[in-house]
């Protein structure tokens, strides 16, 4: 009986080993395309585009910058600016400029006989009412004890707005948690903290009601700068897709590898964004 079982197991192993097939997946060695990153805001600064050539999937070297491209940015009033190449694929306007809320901006890139285009509307947003910090005691339940920064402001009245925040601690960007993003559907519990008493932000702590702070702790004497960007829904979704790819760990629940959806024509990668920025600053008391 034991001999029969051993023979049966040997037969099964032979069958499965004979069915094994090695599948070779071909990936292109070169990609004839470009990736675009933009830095255009309502702040008075140089408009910049970073244009690099796309790379094969397994190529881990730094992407090479595009040099011989012609780059224009125009608005819906007919104003056109030519961005000049600086170095390593960086194209910059001749002088500092400010995007204007309510206008639509159009990007045109001519490169290697190909045309790449994208348009983006510059959205409105209100100024920030309060940006301050509070000390959270140890018995708060689920958030680590320490100093936290929060803001309170009236969000632009019409729903359907999307936001990104950049927080700087003593001039150093705090990015250990990736992008900080939110939309305006739940304004009372979002980073806008519209339901919080700004004069006494911890008045509801016994009921578990706290301001929603930015997820970084600070120390007495720290200077905190907050840049709040009102962005388009398309750029918001693009950043979510980028974050999902950056967070891949190789587990079974990871999203499949994919390029985030771009708003640039002709198969280019990246995103042409125009962001409305407001800034605030506070200092943690000594």
DSSP E strands, number:
15
The structure class reads mainly beta
Rg calc: 25 Å
What is the CA–CA distance across the termini? 83 Å
Strand order of the largest sheet: 7-6-3-4-5-2-1-14
Low-pLDDT regions: 2-18
Order of helices and strands: HEEEEEEEEEEEEEHEE
Tell me, briefly, the overall form.
globular
Largest sheet composition: 8 strands, mixed
Beta-strand percent range: 25-35%
User: Mean pLDDT, rounded to whole units?
Assistant: 85
**Portion in helices:** 10-25%
Number of domains: 2
Task: Count helical runs.
Answer: 2
Helix and strand topology:
Blueprint: H1 2-18, E1 30-39, E2 48-55, E3 70-75, E4 80-87, E5 90-92, E6 104-111, E7 114-121, E8 130-136, E9 146-152, E10 162-169, E11 172-173, E12 180-183, E13 223-231, H2 233-246, E14 269-271, E15 276-283
Parallel strand pairs: 1-14
Antiparallel strand pairs: 1-2, 2-5, 3-4, 3-6, 4-5, 6-7, 8-9, 10-11, 10-12, 10-13, 13-15
């Amino acid at each position: 009986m034991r001999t029969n079982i051993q023979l049966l197991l040997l037969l099964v192993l032979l069958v499965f080993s004979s069915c094994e097939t090695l599948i070779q997946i071909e990936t292109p060695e070169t990609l004839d395309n470009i990736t675009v990153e933009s830095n255009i805001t309502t702040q008075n600064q140089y408009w910049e585009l970073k244009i690099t050539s796309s790379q094969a999937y397994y190529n881990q070297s730094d992407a090479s910058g595009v040099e011989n491209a012609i780059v224009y940015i125009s608005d819906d009033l007919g104003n056109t600016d030519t961005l000049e190449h600086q170095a390593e694929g960086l194209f910059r306007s001749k002088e500092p400029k400010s995007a204007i809320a309510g206008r639509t901006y159009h990007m045109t890139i001519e490169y290697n006989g190909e045309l790449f285009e994208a348009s983006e509307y510059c959205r409105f947003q209100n100024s920030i009412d309060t940006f301050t910090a509070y000390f959270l005691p140890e018995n708060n339940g689920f958030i680590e004890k320490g100093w936290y920064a929060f803001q309170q402001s009236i969000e632009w009245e019409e729903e359907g707005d999307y936001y990104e925040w950049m927080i700087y601690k003593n001039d150093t960007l705090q990015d250990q948690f990736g992008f900080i993003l939110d939309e305006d559907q739940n304004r009372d519990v979002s980073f806008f903290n519209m339901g919080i008493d700004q004069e006494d932000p911890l008045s509801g702590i016994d009921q578990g009601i706290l301001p929603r702070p930015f997820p970084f702790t600070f120390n007495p004497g720290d200077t905190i700068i907050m840049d709040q960007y009102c962005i388009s829904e398309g750029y918001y979704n693009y950043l979510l897709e980028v974050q999902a790819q950056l967070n891949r760990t190789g587990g079974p629940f990871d999203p499949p590898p994919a390029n985030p959806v771009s708003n640039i024509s002709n198969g280019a990668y990246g995103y042409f964004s125009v962001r409305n920025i407001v800034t605030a600053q506070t200092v943690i008391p000594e």
